[in-house]
Design goal:
12 helices; about 25% strand; Glycogen debranching protein; 6-hairpin_glycosidase_sf; 6hp_glycosidase-like_sf
Length: about 700
């Protein structure tokens, strides 16, 4: 198969290598437009984002509270309470007896709440023992509870002041340093109120303050504390007249099953629990259809819908049930472009930086290729026939977009002029074609045979065109450029070649590489250039442009590490899969089991810890979902609910010892599985009629 030529590439003034760069300024693919946002997204690359790696971020979307370890909200940086992307309170400074308490501890109690401990000494002799213990509980829903406890041996009379203020700024303006000054306050009921042309905010206090000073935004109380006694003040902040925050993940309304892990390695349970809690904190309702839930990309920067990330996370969490996948698919189907033109069938999405050697990618293209894959695999996990048929027309439009975009060619190019043929895009397209064909056949729709023929022809060509032979055994090319030139760097994009998708009877779909090429890729991914010891680097350390903090040029991206673990395990390369898994598990422990979307790709050393990335979202949907995928991979669950079977392909090496997963969902019913220390798997609970496949 000849290499592509410029005549088959889109042309335009920005075509060719001169347009390649590292900018990740959001721009749109052809025919694309931003999907509706439930909360504003702060675009990377357009501002210098303030560091967030050390912040305590309470999340229960659309509510958000960002604090430093001092507990006081000073109005500096990102600090404050947010609702739907707007800062409703930026300043909340506590003074007791005319002094600020001394902060001694700050910690996350749950994804939506943080606890701050402080002390205050009132002794004239300056002794070391505190007289007052101060606890502040801060919640993402806009609640702050301040409790004063006396440790003194005498009654205390304590004047308490809380200074409040806000700028009512959007998060994007706060991140860019354009928030503006505090707005003037007015006394309102038992608290304060602020207003501007774009909104308002109200703080109410219980008990009501003894005094309120609008000019300083000050609330005052006088408390008497007996020895061992305690008094509390509860503040609530939010838009004027707003109802209490409705959190999606409350009890039965959550689309995610409350799964548990039981393992010889206690880190497994800690990771799964934290992952599910983070996923629940990032759940949003579609404003068009509130019964449909999807995941925001991450906090604090991306608290709205990001189509590709939402689909990727929904796919990785299928072991927790199909409700999240169904809600995400329905939400995105409503944004799909329809009508005439080359963009018809595309699910819109912004562009994403791809590193220094390639132009930004179109996440809309990625989401469009993921849509039929998620639908096909959700059906295997137990999505009902009625729900699948409802979503099938949108999947057909995605597949028709793919056929139109490829045309008479072999590969799928980027949808903007001068775009290259990326390795990972071909992997996405090949998987979409095979799983999409499987889906069409299951419902008697036409087009499956054509998709399989194209996928077969592309696979044959890919093994020649995209494989670079060298003395080290070869590697996949990152991309082909106009004129047939090759981008040869080794990066994590090759991971997607192992992520082939799930077909019937527990079988993985065939991939784009042959067996020898797959073995070589496994060796490369497991080698020291890519495996940092904390997870998979996004670019090999020997490549030009390597940067351990580059989110596409060397940092560890948790999502792709999890895909590498799953793909390597499915292909039989358990040694490499286990090493990457253990690395991420160690990193998760260092991060309190709340994995950020990425961290520095620096080499792991004895006694060291992973270095945070200052701009990483934490929590992040794909990172939290990756925790679910990593543990599910150990058990190798491969359901085929339409055929009434579930196949188990566990990791035989049992890198975490014995492990059991309970409370999963297959066929809409509880599912539990256990893998012994010998790597033998057994189903402990399953839906009636579900049989163990060969």
């Amino acid at each position: 198969m000849p290499l592509p030529t410029p005549s088959s590439m889109p042309s335009g003034p920005n075509s060719g290598p001169s347009s390649f760069g590292s900018s990740d300024r959001p721009s749109m693919g052809r025919g694309a437009a931003l999907a509706p946002q439930t909360a504003p997204v702060v675009p990377r690359g357009t501002v210098s984002l303030p560091p967030a790696h050390a912040a305590l971020i309470c999340v229960a979307l659309p509510g958000l509270a960002i604090s430093t370890d001092q507990g006081q909200l000073t109005g500096h940086g990102l600090e404050g309470f947010y609702r739907s992307g707007r800062r409703v309170l930026s300043r909340c400074r506590l003074r007791v007896a005319g002094r600020e308490p001394l902060a001694v501890q700050a910690r996350m109690v749950a994804p939506d709440q943080a606890r701050f401990a402080a002390v205050l000494s009132l002794r004239a002799d300056g002794g070391p023992d505190p007289d007052v213990l101060v606890e502040r509980m801060r919640y993402a829903d806009g609640t702050e509870r301040i409790t004063l406890r006396s440790a003194a041996d005498r009654p205390l009379r304590l004047p308490v002041e809380v200074a409040l203020g806000t700028d009512l700024a959007e998060l994007g303006a706060v991140a860019a340093g354009r928030a503006g000054p505090d707005l003037p306050a007015s006394v309102h009921d038992s608290g304060m109120r602020w207003s501007c042309a774009t909104g308002d905010s109200v703080v109410t206090a219980d008990p009501p303050p003894a005094d309120a000073l609008a000019s300083a935004g000050l609330l005052r109380w006088e408390f008497e504390l007996l020895p061992g006694g305690a008094r509390s003040v509860e503040l609530r902040v939010g838009p004027a007249g707003a109802r209490p925050l409705r959190v999606v993940a409350r009890g039965a309304t959550s689309p995610l099953a409350p799964a548990r892990a039981d393992s010889d390695d206690p880190r497994a349970e800690a990771l799964l629990r934290a992952s599910i809690e983070d996923l629940q904190a990032l759940l949003l309702r579609d404003p068009v259809q509130p019964s449909d839930a999807h995941l925001a990309a991450g906090a604090p920067w991306r608290c709205g819908m990001a189509p590709a990330e939402a689909l990727a996370a929904a796919r990785m969490t299928l072991p927790l049930g199909t409700r999240l996948a169904a809600g995400t698919l329905r939400t995105l189907a409503r944004t799909q472009l329809v009508g005439a033109g080359p963009g018809s069938g595309l699910i819109p999405g912004p562009r994403r930086q791809a590193g220094a050697q390639l132009p930004p990618t179109c996440t809309g293209q990625e989401a469009t290729l993921l849509f039929p894959v998620v639908l096909a695999e959700a059906r295997r996990w137990g999505l009902s026939g009625a729900e699948t048929e409802e979503l099938l027309p949108a999947a057909e439009r995605c597949l028709q977009w793919l056929r139109t975009a490829v045309g008479d060619g072999t590969y799928l190019a980027d949808p903007h002029p001068g775009g290259p043929w990326r390795c990972e895009t071909q992997a996405h397209a090949h998987r979409a074609a095979l799983l999409g064909a499987d889906l069409l056949d299951a419902y008697g729709r036409e087009g499956g045979a054509e998709l399989r023929r194209w996928a077969g022809a592309m696979s044959t060509a890919f093994r020649q065109d995209f494989w670079i032979e060298d003395r080290g055994g070869g590697r996949p090319a990152a991309a082909l450029l106009p004129g047939g030139r090759i981008v040869p760097y080794l990066g994590s994009g090759g991971v997607h070649l192992l992520d082939t998708g799930l077909l019937g009877a527990g079988a993985a779909a065939p991939g784009l590489l042959d067996q020898a090429q797959t073995e070589q890729l496994a060796r490369l991914l497991g080698g020291p250039a890519m495996d940092s010891g904390w997870g998979l680097r996004s670019l090999g350390v020997k490549e030009t442009g390597y940067n351990p903090f580059g989110h596409r040029s060397g940092a560890v991206r948790v999502h792709e590490t999890a895909l590498a673990v799953a793909g390597l395990a499915a292909a039989g390369y358990e040694k490499e899969a286990s090493a990457l898994l253990l690395g991420v598990l160690a990193a998760a422990e260092a991060f309190g089991h709340r994995l950020p979307e990425m961290y520095a790709g620096e080499r792991r050393t004895e006694g060291g810890s992973p270095v945070p990335h200052p701009a990483a979202c934490r929590p992040a949907a794909t990172a939290a979902a990756a925790g679910v995928l990593l543990l599910a991979t150990l058990t190798g669950i491969r359901p085929d609910v339409p055929a009434g079977t579930v196949t188990l392909r566990p990791v035989r090496g049992a890198p975490l010892g014995e492990i059991g997963l309970t409370g999963l969902r297959v066929a809409g019913a509880p599912f539990s599985v256990r893998v012994s220390r010998l790597g033998l798997a057994m189903v402990e609970e399953a839906a009636d009629g579900l049989q163990l496949g060969a």
